[in-house]
Design a protein that fits this description.
The protein has about 230 residues and is of the alpha/beta class. About 30% of the residues lie in helices and about 25% in strands. Strands 1, 2, 3, 4, 5, 6, 7, 10 and 11 form a nine-stranded mixed beta sheet that branches. Strands 8-9 form a two-stranded antiparallel sheet. A hairpin with a 2-residue loop joins β8 and β9. α1 runs parallel beside α6 and α2 crosses α6. The longest helix has 23 residues. The protein is elongated, with a radius of gyration of 21 Å. About 40% of the residues are buried.
Length: about 230
Amino acid sequence: MSVVVRNTPRTDSGIVEGFATLGVATVHEAQGRTGLLAPRLRPIYRPIRIAGTALTCELAPGDNWMLHVAAEQARPGDILVAVPTSQCGDAYFGELLATSLRARGVRGLVIDAGVRDIADLTVMQFPVWSAAISAQGTVKETVGNVQTPVICAGVRISPGDVIVADDDGVVVVRREQAENVLRNARSRAAGEATKRERLAKGELGLDIYGMREKLAQRGLRYLDAGDD
């Protein structure tokens, strides 16, 4: 049976907006190096950075019918996360669907499959992270699921989770953990800002991060030229 789950809870918008100022790498590190989608998902243009709530969609191979169904469930601030049930590089998405989603307030697309109309999407500035770019179209014959948990690029994503995406990739933060992860990520970003200032003044990472003792313990020795 295929289903569309309506009225699913989303992460609080204030928390989501907090993530919008943070990079994927910072968020990934702040939650214990978890939640990072496989690097085959790349942005179709750069620079780009967005955050939003997951609107999930499971699709049949070579069939984009359920993307149109998902558009009906979209709320402002969502990011559509689309996954085929089997590996497929066909173009599920293009400029017309982007126009429809933008009208519904969707901020972008993360899809473990193909897209097309790249030039138009770039001009529109509609953010997309995809596994492939292809002119190969799809059909509309098979139903799937909307707003159910999916596995996208190796990571489980539930409706309403936070999606953060930028030039470096895509990371997901569980809705239930989002507030704590945001706090940790902000703390990490503040620490990085302090270290950046010290590095800019010429201090070495060896000293800032206290690496010298551990390097010595691992057997690293310094010799002057000509020493035996």
